[in-house]
């Protein structure tokens, strides 16, 4: 009898213990269910840390933290994707002028990142035998800053990034490096990020961003990716400008060639006209030569005839001259005879 009572008491103790454990398990499951529902519904006012010490809660909390981390990563990826899409649209629609394009980029980048100041340096490819970075656009508090600044390789932080082709992130900025004007006065930035704009291991420019707060790593990665896109756009814009210049030069050369061809055509036409005129004059000269030869023959014959006539005339003249001389001699002889007769008559008159 005592043995049966002992067994019954033992069974009642085990039953009470199992009932207590069952109640505790049910409470744990209810808590876990409540915890999971709060997790799924993302209740901000739910105290997730209250029951983290329980094993089941620890496992679920680990999943919560992992899910939270994944959510942060997804948000960062979405932010990066949205930003790249935004800037790709800007780059696609603003390629007509490089300076305007850089103004659009740095203005939107400063706003999108939530930083206070930014500058965009572009490699000046108009300088022979050396490279220089030119500050083409600068913004601070949504206002464009007109700053003329050229940076040589290895000069300052920007020049170092240009040479090393690696980004630079500083949480302790040297004094007097840059000041940010705000509504509260002058404040020295606590963070500085300088990133090269790379494409095919060639630096096309440098982005400089200053802020009063630390820039997260995903934003820095975004700036690096954006720098590659900007470098590609700058290269395409410059190639387009070169092609445009070459096209304009070729059009000018083609116009010059057309003008030269027209001038040559006119020269050829004038030459042909000159040749035709010369050919016509040559024919006229040939005809004139033939006529001259004919005239020469006629003149020659006439000259020969004239020469014969002249000889005849000379002979006749000589004959006439001879006859005249003879007659003159006869007249002289007669005159002498007359004189002699007259003398004789005078003598006879004297005698009478």
TrEMBL record:
Residues 97-244 form the GAF domain. SUPFAM superfamilies: GAF domain-like. It comes from Flammeovirga aprica JL-4. Pfam families: GAF_2. It comes from the Bacteria. Residues 15-76, 247-351 form a coiled coil. InterPro entries: GAF, GAF-like_dom_sf. This is GAF domain-containing protein. Keywords: Coiled coil. The keyword S-adenosyl-L-methionine does not apply.
